[in-house]
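Observation: inputs received (chain + phosphoenolpyruvate).
Thought: call the complex predictor directly.
Action: predict_structure
Action Input:
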Amino acid sequence: MARTFFVGGNFKMNGLKESIKAIVEQLNAAELPSNVEVVIAPPALYLDWAQTHLKQATVEIAAQNSFDKNTGAYTGEVAVEQIKDVGAKWVILGHSERRTILNETDEFVASKTKFALDNGLGVILCIGELLEERDAGKTIEVVNRQIDAVVEKVKDWSNIVIAYEPVWAIGTGLAATPEDAQAVHAAIRKHLVEVIGAEQAENTRIIYGGSVNGKNAKSFNGAADIDGFLVGGASLKPEFVDIINARQ
Ligand code: PEP
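Observation:
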């Protein structure tokens, strides 16, 4: 089964009503390929706003985080049920900014992943190594550990998209080279074969994130295990459409 190319836009804690509406309207006006799945992740406050203005059939909405419990006494958290209630279909979990700044552990990310999947959201599961881990030759060890925490809790990976995002490449302008990214993606897929089986491993999308922009996106074409991108800064700009079209 061919894996559908997947491009996510992570707005992070950026945007106000007017600018988010402008990004959505720009996507509405663009000619987007029907063979690319596009997901945009505005801040939680604006999920409903983005969904209301979105008119593109191939674009869906994601939250940037969700909790591992149902609605209740969890001040400041966002429930899966609430995310679904405003029409969003996805959630980004395990982003390095949450792992490092908010101290989210592998186990907590795994628990949230299981809860989101069990309750009907697709999960964009972010993994990736810090610069010092890369320099110590620990990249594969780190991403495998992050994957294994989820494997312990989740057996069906059909609604997970893995985003490999080397932390040193996020927001730095220093994207991984297509060769380096492909090598890590291939190693991730090899590990998936071992832990969730060959068929699920073959079907799981592994997308790359870290300083992807309208200029470098095409350079990843031809990398057999790179099934799309997770885009931060450039998803707020018109070049996001060029990234969506990079594989055409
Ligand atoms: C991200 O935040 O997921 C990301 C990849 O950011 P950027 O594209 O800005 O490096």
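Thought: report the result.
Final Answer: The chain is about 40% helix and 15% strand. The beta strands are 5-10, 36-41, 59-63, 90-93, 122-127, 160-164, 206-209, 228-231.
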